[in-house]
Amino acid sequence: MKLNTLIKYKKPKKRIGRGIAAGQGKTCGRGHGGQKSRAGKTIRVGFEGGQTPLFQKLPKYRGFRNINQVEYQVVNLSDLEKSGLKTITKEALLEKRIVRKKTLPIKVLGQGEITSAIKVELTAASQSAIDKITKAGGSFTSTKKAPKITKRKKPLSNAAPVKKDEENTEEAS
What we know:
With 173 residues, the protein is an alpha/beta fold. The protein has a domain at 73-142: CATH 3.100.10.10. It has 5 helices and 6 strands, in the order αβαβαβββαβα. A 3-stranded parallel sheet has the order 1-3-5. It starts with 53 loop residues before the first helix and ends with a helix.
């Protein structure tokens, strides 16, 4: 079988309004009367037949949502102290059920005290948490991936821009 030898099938156009026996006669599939059956019908999106629509009942959405915001799972130093782990990774915290979501990054906050030296390998940590970990003799390593550097599609032109002051002085003389 070759694609260029296949017989092309085109569905025949539905003939509307050609008698009752044709199946789409009389009202032509538009129902019996009403605004939607008329020519040039347009009812705006969200119209509920005169009832106050939902979008008017709800309060306005104020402010904006930052699309670059990162949502972290928060772990405090007191939680790490209770866990009893010497090396703290995402997998270890998931296994101990301290955090639940595999996809979200984890951030360590400095609430609580830490006494033993621990090695922390997580996405992020607050400065106070890093200070307390290093003070106890431990270390913090960020597993945050570096952002991708993309190349420019078009190179910048090497022509130097002409200053407006120079143009005006040349025209005047």
